[in-house]
Amino acid sequence: MAAQRNTWQKEAVREALGHADGFVSAQTLHAGIRDDTGIGLATVYRALAGLAQSGEADSLQSPEGEALYRACKTSGHHHHLICRRCGRTVEIEATAVEQWAHDVAAQNGFTGAEHVVDIFGLCAQCTAEVDAA
């Protein structure tokens, strides 16, 4: 696959993503930069896909099915704990998940298995706020 060009538009998306708190949708990111840059939504989608493919951004699917992105803070394979209410995200290693994925693949004759595991819940602060309400 050919390397993607590093355009000013992609750099603007990379910078905006780096300043975002937690995971954001392409639409949210676009709304924050369109007036200053004139970048279109399709360009934001392409830039985010490229950043995710290169490992510069994490990408996940929300419980509602929307693609969300954030600047990747950790290199290498990792998982996330994500608060459904405030979006707080914690990167975690999950050795048991890694072993399980390898074992299930091997039991079924698969090799080179890949997986994505993101865990959604309420962080301690949001749980306390919900309980207090």
Can you describe what's shown?
It is a single chain. This protein is an alpha+beta fold and about 130 residues long. The radius of gyration is 17 Å and the shape is flat. It starts with 7 loop residues before the first helix and ends with a helix. The strands form two sheets. Strands 1-3-2 form a three-stranded antiparallel β-sheet. It folds into two domains: about 1-75, Winged helix-like DNA-binding domain superfamily/Winged helix DNA-binding domain (Arc Repressor Mutant, subunit A), CATH 1.10.10.10; about 75-133, Ferric-uptake regulator, C-terminal dimerisarion domain (Dna Ligase, domain 1, 2-Layer Sandwich). The model has no long low-confidence stretch (mean pLDDT about 90). Helix 1 (about 10-20) packs across helix 3 (about 40-55) and helix 2 (about 25-35) crosses helix 3 (about 40-55). It is about 45% helix and about 20% strand.
Q: What's this entry about, in short?
A:
The mean pLDDT is 88. The chain has five helices and six strands.
Principal-axes shape call? flat
Q: Can you identify the CATH superfamily of the largest domain?
A: Winged helix-like DNA-binding domain superfamily/Winged helix DNA-binding domain
What is the averaged pLDDT score?
88
Low-pLDDT regions? none
**In CATH terms, what is the fold-level topology of the largest domain?**
Arc Repressor Mutant, subunit A
